[in-house]
Amino acid sequence: MKTLPLAGLAGAVLFSVSQFAAAQDDPITVIVTASRSAETVDETLVPVTVITREQIERSGATTLPEVLSTVPGVVIVRNGGAGQQASVLLRGTESRHVLVLIDGVRVGSATLGATPFQHIPLDQVDRVEVVRGPRSSLYGSDAIGGVIQIFTRRGKGAPQSSLTVRTGTHETGEVSAGISGGSDAAWYLMHATAFTTEGFDVCRSESTGVGGCYADQPDDDGYDNTSLSFRSGGRIGERFEVEAA
């Protein structure tokens, strides 16, 4: 069996101060990615798709690329099974022309140049905003195809805990646990996920040739991913909030 390195979702402490939009209390869907300011979907002039946490849970998807594949104009290109690179293309542009933000921070791979969607645990995603079409005037040349912004979950309501266990074929298993809570004045959330699978042989020679790999590698392509996320913050006055994540 070929051993792959442990892939983790690295966390950095980020302090951000953002103006609190009163429109957040409105039941109408409010977005911030299209114009970098709060506005409703009806007010924006560009095509936008918003995927909420409720929609993610109802979809039955287990990975972020599976969720994004349901958005019109989005094409997912996979290079194998679990843990392999998954590229996201918007409106026919290349993956390097799609800007990806997580809670307002640009993300990308230092080696592949593309965002490692396959390493982002879906349990930690609260909502996704997909803006289709050029946004270079606001975000730069890497937003020619559009912008995808991922918002992570944050605590709300009474203190609560969660535990999820999944299992599947190819000795696949996943365990996730978390604690969260909060109010309008302050909130917190801590979540951990561990995923492992023995995988399957991606490059296997058949009688018709080698399946796209141009080499015969008779081994299982396993994958392990362990991630830990933390998010805490509070509101200062009526217009500002501070967060550490």
Task: List the defining traits of the structure above.
mainly beta, Ferric Hydroxamate Uptake Protein, Chain A, domain 1, 245 residues, 7% helix, 2 domains, five-stranded mixed sheet, seven-stranded mixed sheet, 3 helices
Description of the structure:
The protein is built from three helices and 18 strands. A hairpin with a 7-residue loop joins strand 6 and strand 7. The two termini are 36 Å apart. It has helices spanning 53-59, 64-68, 136-139, and strands at residues 7-9, 15-19, 30-31, 39-40, 48-51, 74-78, 86-90, 98-102, 105-106, 125-132, 146-152, 157-168, 172-182, 186-197, 205-206, 209-210, 223-236, 240-244. The longest helix has 7 residues, at 53-59. By secondary structure, it is mainly beta. The strands form five sheets. Strands 1, 2, 12, 13, 14, 17 and 18 form a seven-stranded mixed β-sheet that branches. Strands 5-10-11-8-9 form a five-stranded mixed β-sheet. It has a two-stranded antiparallel ribbon with strand order 3-4. It has two domains: 14-152, Beta Complex (Ferric Hydroxamate Uptake Protein, Chain A, domain 1); 157-231, no CATH class. Mean pLDDT is 79; it is low at 1-27.
CATH architecture of the largest domain: Beta Complex
Number of helices: 3
SSE sequence, one letter per element: EEEEEHHEEEEEHEEEEEEEE
Helix content: under 10%
Indicate the structural class: mainly beta
Largest sheet: 7 strands, mixed
Strand content: 35-45%
> CATH superfamily membership of the largest domain, which one?
TonB-dependent receptor, plug domain
What value does the Rg take, in angstroms?
19 Å
What is the rounded distance between the termini? Answer: 36 Å
Number of strands: 18
CATH fold assignment of the largest domain: Ferric Hydroxamate Uptake Protein, Chain A, domain 1
Contiguous low-pLDDT stretches (5 residues minimum) are: 1-27
| Average pLDDT, all residues | 79
How many domains? 2
Overall, the morphology is: globular
CATH class of the largest domain: Mainly Beta
